[in-house]
Structures are given as structure tokens and as C-alpha cells.
Amino acid sequence: MNIDQVTTAPLIKANQKHLEDSKCRECRPGLSIRGGKEYADAFPVSFAAFAGCFAAAAGIGLTQLQSFGDFRSPLDIFIWVLGLAAAASLAGIGICRLIRVKPYCLLHGVVCVYFALRMITQYRLWSSDPCLMDYFFYLAAHLALMLTAYQLAAFDTDMGSHRALWLSALGGLYLCCVAVYGCSDIPLIIGCGIWCFTSLTNLTEQKRRPRPVMETEE
Fold this sequence. Notes:
By secondary structure, the protein is mostly helical.
């Protein structure tokens, strides 16, 4: 028996004991909203997420096509083009969720900027509307969708927060459901509500690698 076998034998024995210990918390998967920030751990392959991204892309694209020609300023033209880019970005993100490839952070960034600029035009359009409650929910839904896209972009760079994403995504889902009544852009709201529900992170933690422990002989 050489020196390497003598020095590594206690480590191998400690690892085996560590894995066989049923009380070891580090080896048991659990549910935690403080999951890891890495994209691969937070977003597994999901056909539901793929369908949700395409539902949001279809809703945004249909809404933009319906508003074609209704331009009153260069900002409206820019937002219209940005909306098509956001729809294409969501389609690309959906494909990434299906094949488990981390999307580029600018894809979610385009969606985030689109909802931020869209809030400006909606405020300008609805500021004189007497239905303030419908206006409030519609504006709040856009704000939640913008924050959801922002949090997803953070996960693309492995710096996301599970709590922040769940708060913004579930808030966006609720506000989209409330804003459907009295809303003129129903395809966008419904599609983005589905996207929020299917874009939540996985709360099942991955099994951690056991740390070798050196046993001391008495």
C-alpha cells in the first residue's frame, strides 16, 4: 500500500459515512425560496414555460399588429418596433427553456424596456379616462410585468433572487387577471399572465456535494 492510498482512505470512508447518514440535511433535497442563483438550478426544462413564453409572445405580437398605423409620435413607432422585438425575444426564451440553454440577458431586457415604455403611452392615453380603477390595475399589471422581466434577466446573469421573482410574477399574474375586465388589449394581458405563472423558479434544491471530513483517531 503506497502513501497516497494511506492518506486518501480516511477521506473515502468519511464520504461514505456522510452519504449514508439519513440525518444529513445537506444530502436531502428540500423546498426553499432561497434557492441557488444559478440559472441551471432555478429553471429546469419545462414545456409549460415554453408554452407560456409563446403565449406572451403571441399576445404582444397580436396587440402590436392591431395597433399598426396608429402612430402619433416617433415614440409610438419605437414602442411598436420594440414590441415586435419583445415578442421575438420571448419566443427565443421559450425555446431556451425547452432545450435548457441559458438565454442572453438582453432578451429579457428588451421585454422589460418594452413594458416600461408602454406604461408611458398608456398613462398618456388613459390619464383623462374616468375609469380610474381599471386604469390603475392596467398600469400596475404593466409594472409587475416589467419587474418580472427584470428579475428573469437577473437570473440570466446568475444574480437573480427567488423571492423577488416570485413576488413580481405572482403579482403580475394577479393584476393581469384583474385587469382583463375593461381592458382593450386582452390578448396581451392573458398571454403575459400565463407567462408569469409558467416563469416561476424551481424551489427544489439540488443535492449538494458532500464535503469530506477527516476523522481523527483517538
